[in-house]
Description:
Shape of chain A: globular
Order of helices and strands of chain A: EHHEHEHEHEHEHEHEHHHHH
Strand content of chain A: 5-15%
Oligomer: homodimer
Number of strands of chain A: 8
Largest interface: A-B, 38 and 39 residues
Number of helices of chain A: 13
Radius of gyration of chain A: 19 Å
Amino acid sequence: MKKKGDLVSFRPDIKVVDCTLRDGGLVNNFFFSEEFVKDLYLTNLKAGIDYMEFGYKANKDLFDADKFGKWKFCSDEDIRAVVGENDTKLKISVMADVGRTNFQRDICNKSDSPIDMIRVATYIHTIPAALEIVEYCHNKGYETTINIMAVSKSNDSDLDDALELIGRSCVDIIYVVDSYGSLYPEQMRRLASKYLECAEKYNKIIGIHAHNNQQLAFANTIETLTMGVSYLDSTVSSMGRGAGNCPTELLLGFLKNPKYKITPVLKFIEKHITRLKEEGVVWGYDIPYLLTGRLNQHPRDAIQFTADKRTDYAAFLQHLYDKDSF
Amino acid sequence: MKKKGDLVSFRPDIKVVDCTLRDGGLVNNFFFSEEFVKDLYLTNLKAGIDYMEFGYKANKDLFDADKFGKWKFCSDEDIRAVVGENDTKLKISVMADVGRTNFQRDICNKSDSPIDMIRVATYIHTIPAALEIVEYCHNKGYETTINIMAVSKSNDSDLDDALELIGRSCVDIIYVVDSYGSLYPEQMRRLASKYLECAEKYNKIIGIHAHNNQQLAFANTIETLTMGVSYLDSTVSSMGRGAGNCPTELLLGFLKNPKYKITPVLKFIEKHITRLKEEGVVWGYDIPYLLTGRLNQHPRDAIQFTADKRTDYAAFLQHLYDKDSF
């Protein structure tokens, strides 16, 4: 695959998608302060970020609204309270999970909503259900993405079939997602190459959503970017479930487009992230995440191990091996 | 450049060099407990590590022996007190810095020493002085390396000349070193390619020593490894100056040679690294290191900023910009 762009110039097709509230919300059940959310919005504006993802469009019939902050549900009213009419270059996105969203009820016409893009997260076996949501949202006027999760567990021919199906749909953007942070750059490039072939054939855009279990989220993001991937997910200070995500501050340090500014993000970290960490909110690369990532497992056991403040890493690894052997 | 090896098999030419004492010693002035050093030696044996670097052969005329632990000086006696005759597969290395070592006095015949390999760290303008040490050590019977520091500050033609000079010497191994943690995988591959051409021409081996300022130490190590680099420096839990190094536990998770075992390293981390961190010894990726790395600067200002427990990152970035503009 030919290299796109170089280390001196920049590609105008690159878009940075801030997922701090959405993926970070998995760390604190979406209980962000009003000030955090407002400041993050202002930070993204100043930093030249292209999209800000506010959270999920979860179905309140399925999730108890008392147990989660409002960004689990992302009503248009709650978003508007932060962004007003959002008369800016920063677009707004939300995520809808297959089976966890009542899209017919909760997603109105784009013309009546502050939301610009709806991203649909799906496993490979629920792609038809994902495409149903995509088509619905597309017809309502939104940009749409499909984020195929856990591809590190899929086989190549299933993925080929999935990409054909998605390619023929009306979706705008297809995301390479390393759900378990298990993929090495060589594997990410191979995957991205497959997705980019589909993009070429069906005139789609490819995005990347990386996790940092093996300290590879940033490396995998910039490596696939160089190949032509253009929607880049990141979070401030890597905030996200488990080992977290590609850190926005590293990504903005790499990107050469002068519209991207790192200083607003540094100021946000000073004010908000250092405080969150002092309050004991925990995420980011650590040994247990390396171990689940390396074994291509869901991080849930590592999250529990970390929450329990355990440090018996060798026993934890044995536990993961034992799980894998049944 | 052709890819060497794949993600399933392994290359027997790969050697892992544990630099925990040497690079980690820059964090705590080499004041490691006896138990730490002994346990690290036993860990390396069990983990299948190929080399253990004990520290520096610093000149006691230049450095006050009261201000540093003994691994700044690495006398044969001190090493022997840990390893005895070291009748194992684990080789012992030490580092000699150009201008900071009295090699004629402090380095005896290999046959009388527990040390197997002497690594010479040099800037590009002191390569003739480095080659003098290399030749001396080679003639005494040691394996030798040259580690060219700060290549991210050198221009290509100087580096070409340097590699020619080194290629024609008796040195065994030449190291690609990312002193400031400033290099992206694309740049590391380009550098490694240059070094590997020299290796091909002059029958040398290439090694890599990466720093983690931009969370790229592991990625850069495995990317260049795939190209044919075979000596891989790492430290337990990334312990090393500033942002630290390529973490041994990530590297062993990647390598497929069954002789490498991650569990002994996890046990060492449980016992020793968690304690060091609780005692307040600080290293590892953090915002200030990202900023010096991105600007291709020595990490000393970031180390001071971190030691001062400052979090005014935006002001720190401005300070780095100002420095660069004089």
